[in-house]
Design brief:
By secondary structure, this protein is an all-beta fold. It starts with a strand and ends in a 34-residue tail after the last strand. It has no helices and eight strands. The protein has a six-stranded antiparallel beta barrel.
Length: about 140
Amino acid sequence: MKEPLTITPYLGKDGSDPLGLGGQDWGTPLKVIEPITLTANPGITYQSGSGGDMEVSILVWSSRTPGFKKGTKVLREQTGETYTVTGEAPLTHSQLTYYQLQRNGGDNDEQPAGSNSSGDGAKQVPDESGGEDPLGL
């Protein structure tokens, strides 16, 4: 199903870092409404730490716009999740380009859409003063 996305094209290194480690250059963000699909390849699995096989899932963004480089950022506006383009496969007959995506951050890094992301989350914890230290420290 199509969804609103914000695409920030990666343009490459801007030359500002003499070591070539930073200094990335980004293009103007584009707003598109295109699908991101989840595909699973049952032939590719890995062993989980608790035992058993887990399938590897791949996120694919289907776009009518060709030519985005690896490193391009994709923001799902409905969930606030961000992804990075890690590969592309243009299909000339359908005039589509399939971009493989990798999620940025881990589960602990994501916040629900509309949450307070200013870093002052500690202010939201209720004051529980007056309790005694059970260990006597």
